[in-house]
Amino acid sequence: MPLTDSLRDDILASVPNLRAFAISLSGNGDRADDLVQETLLRALANIDSFQPGSNLPAWLFTILRNLFRSDYRKRRREVEDADGSYAKTLKSQPSQNAHLEFEEFRAALEKLPQDQREALILVGASGFSYEDAAAICGCAVGTIKSRVNRARSKLSALLYVDGAEDFGPDDTIRAVIGGGR
Amino acid sequence: MKDAKPPANKGGLNAEIQSRIGHQLRAMYDDVVRQGVPDRFADLIRKLDASEAGDPQMNSAGDFNAKKDGRD
Question: B25 and A121 in contact (C-beta within 8 Å)?
């Protein structure tokens, strides 16, 4: 469909969610915003292929997810965000304890395999149904369910259960789990 | 009774931990959502919208639609 005013407004209204998804995936605010920008450019360039009445957020998330996947393959050998630039993207600085807990959680999330992390975010944070998440990721609904379950199990092991070494946490995680020194 | 553990689900996670993970995930995510739309993206859409009309100087959406297919 052509880009009507209302469609343009709907795309713009999806930006906050696209950013949150991009940051959750990449763990890096700057990279996430570049990803969102690229997503918007692709979406507008291909707006004729969007079916009126279909799920616009799911369509946009699919574009962003595919861009991230191809980008990720190129960058996988690069050093991941180690200086907490994700935290710098946050407007409100949480209290000390809340901040530590947040950093723990973020670090654990980054330990998850790509497939599991995106499934968990789509279902657990973005609020997509299992069906929509499956469409976005191009896999079966059962696959999404199983990825979400495995993601939750791993996060639980990393954050709350002893013996998390089984999942290969790095020294930072180990120190956090052990309460620091 | 008070010693009973919360029921474990299929994955062996207890309900309390699962709800805590869900809460943290949403807190992290919503923190970004609450930042709204940065100017950078609003500007981008505006510029693209203008150039989509075939003439970067043109600012009339009515002309744009008429040019495309004669109706909205």
Answer: yes
